[in-house]
Write a structure and sequence with these properties.
Layout (H helix, E strand, L loop, with lengths): L3 H14 L4 E5 L2 H12 L3 E7 L6 E6 L13 E3 L8 E2 L13 E6 L2 E4 H7 L3 E7 L1
Antiparallel strand pairs: 1-3, 2-3, 4-8, 5-8, 6-7, 6-8
């Protein structure tokens, strides 16, 4: 697999479009951090790290509005790819939907959102947009 983050986002997109409640994703440290950010920001209902085999999996419970059956995640967009990395400084940090969405960044201080990176005044690689 050449781009595990794109695979992670595609699995989430496919599960959302198929109205699944839970999706299983192969685990890695970067995917675990992105999952924690999605949970902290309220985009997913819950998550669980399952240690089975050498890699393990992440079970993600998706969040839906029960009345309208609309998912909390409208769009997941991969920004940086292995063939074309996108880096940004804290002054040029992208704002997703004028601050309503989040950009997930990989920085020297770890994986964080664009708002946290702006407060710490550090830049990094823009992994994806979520809104």
């Amino acid at each position: 697999m050449t781009d595990p983050i794109a695979d992670y986002l595609t699995r989430l997109r496919n599960a959302i479009s198929a109205k699944h409640r839970v999706v299983d994703v192969p685990a890695s440290n970067l995917k675990k951090e992105i999952t924690k950010i999605l949970f902290d920001k309220g985009y997913i209902l819950n998550f669980k790290f399952v240690e089975d085999g050498p890699q393990g999996t992440i079970k993600i419970a998706l969040k839906y509005d029960l009345v309208n059956k609309v998912n909390a995640i409208k769009k997941l967009q991969r920004v940086s790819s292995p063939g074309l990395r996108k880096y940004t400084g804290y002054k040029d940090m992208p704002r997703v939907l004028n601050g309503l969405g989040i950009a997930v960044l990989s920085t020297s201080k770890g994986v964080m959102t664009d708002k946290e990176a702006r407060e710490l005044k550090i830049g990094g690689e823009v992994l994806c947009y979520v809104y």
